[in-house]
Amino acid sequence: MSTKSSIGNTGIYDASELGNGRMLILGLQHMFAMFGATVLVPALTGLSVSATLLFAGLGTLLFHLLAKGRVPAFLGSSFAFLAGYWTIAPNGEKELLPYACLGVAAAGLVYLVLALLFKLFDAKKVMRFFPPIVTGPIIISIGLTLSSSAIGNCNANWLIALVAIVVVIVCNIWGRGMIKIVPILLGVVASYVVAAITGNVDFTPVREAAWIGLPFKMEDTVFSIFKAPDTSLIITSIVTIVPISIATIVEHIGDISAISSTVNKNFIREPGLHRTLLGDGLATSLASLFGAPANTTYGENTGVLALTKVYDPKVVRLAALFAMVLSFSPKVAALISSMPAATIGGVSLILYGMISAIGVRNVVENRVDFSKGRNVIIAALILVLSIGINYGTEAQAIVFSISGINISLSGLAVGAIIGIFLNAVLPGKDYEFGKDPQADSSANLKV
């Protein structure tokens, strides 16, 4: 079989024409793209990095199975639930984390409820609550709220970060053939090598780590709770964390819209949001039961799709398999975990910016009319609440009490709730799902 030697502006939907070797490298690139953010969540919360990798891979494969293998999405750790973890286990207490994971597992079940609604009712009736004026600003907010972590990582060493940024830009703009396909991977490798040469990488954890080990321990899973359950803490965890799913569901719809826009296929219609929501929700619940973070469709990998123009879901499934293999090797996981923060920051700086840019593109391509006051108000409040709460409060969330139980809502959750509510009650709606097949669901989609 002949292989394609160069990549133009036309997207590639069957990566097999590139050859098996190139497909493997593309899969590695997708793994590296998700790795920094995915392992950051367990690093911040105290959850297991190895379990995170295992269930990111398993969750991705489960998602692809339920979505008929058509959507090139990778499921990695969700940042939206950080406030929930910190509320239940503020210092990463091992005995409290399983309770937080139980709350996240319950939040995953909310996806199933909405998936059922999509299955039972016309998508038009459900999608009227998620028009471009809501999902567009949410996508923008996702990228902007992540931006602080990218800058924070870059601050560790801007020289190393700039190496990653420059290599990605040069390879993407002036690269030819395979160089143009793997700018993220080359940026990571080049930056990592420079960091190692300049003495900015500590390889001690790598030397001390075992070659093979199990990804998780049963005492870290939700099942450990039921030996001596604390009923009050169970209720608190569920009530505190489940509302966050409102934001992550909107984020999911936005991500699927962004992937659809990038790939130029209407995944809202086929395989349908009921399937993608089911896959995302079940993956989140499964991961949480075994002590891994909530899963979410990853904007980082959507950025890779936009950069490489290789849209074959098989490549993403290869990345999932790589992540699963790594989860059983503490030494390899330690090697990748030793990647300098500045390297992660440099790559993330580009990818997070592309997420927000895709949000802007969705709003523009759907011709959202900002001469209408309702649209200006909805977009303004979503952006200010989502970003302002994230940066303007020490806990990066709004906390309020009901009957003595503290409930924490992240900025994205508040922005999503307010956006959906205002769109539902304010007069002057001008969006109808299905009226324009090429502009459905916040994106310039093509059937």
Distance between the termini: 30 Å
> What fraction strand?
under 5%
- Sheet with the most strands? 2 strands, antiparallel
Domain tally: 1
User: Low-confidence parts, pLDDT < 50 over ≥5 residues?
Assistant: 437-447
What's the helix-strand series? HHEHHHHHHHHHHHEHHHHHEEH
The rough form would be described as globular
Structural class: mainly alpha
- Give me the number of helical elements: 19
Q: Fraction of residues in helices?
A: 55-70%
Mean pLDDT, nearest integer?
A: 81
Q: Write out the strand line-up for the largest beta sheet, numbering strands in chain order.
A: 1-2
CA radius of gyration is 21 Å
- Counting DSSP E segments of at least 2 residues, the number of strands comes to 4
Describe this structure in words.
It is a single chain. The protein is mainly alpha-helical. It has one domain. Helices cover about 65% and strands about 5% of the residues. It contains 19 helices and 4 strands. Strands 1-2 form a two-stranded antiparallel sheet. A two-stranded antiparallel ribbon has the order 3-4. Strand 3 and strand 4 form a beta hairpin. The longest helix has 26 residues. The protein is globular, with a radius of gyration of 21 Å. The C terminus is likely disordered.
Task: Throw out a few tags for this protein.
447 residues, 4% strand, 19 helices
SSE topology:
Blueprint (H helix, E strand, L loop, with lengths): L19 H26 L3 H18 L8 E3 L4 H7 L8 H24 L2 H5 L4 H23 L3 H17 L3 H4 L1 H15 L6 H5 L22 H11 L2 H20 L4 H22 L5 E3 L1 H10 L4 H15 L2 H8 L3 H25 L7 H20 L4 E6 L2 E6 H15 L22
Antiparallel strand pairs: 1-2, 3-4
Helix pairs in contact: 1-2, 1-9, 1-15, 2-13, 2-15, 3-4, 3-11, 4-11, 4-12, 4-13, 6-12, 6-17, 6-18, 6-19, 7-9, 7-17, 9-17, 12-13, 12-14, 12-17, 12-19, 14-17, 18-19
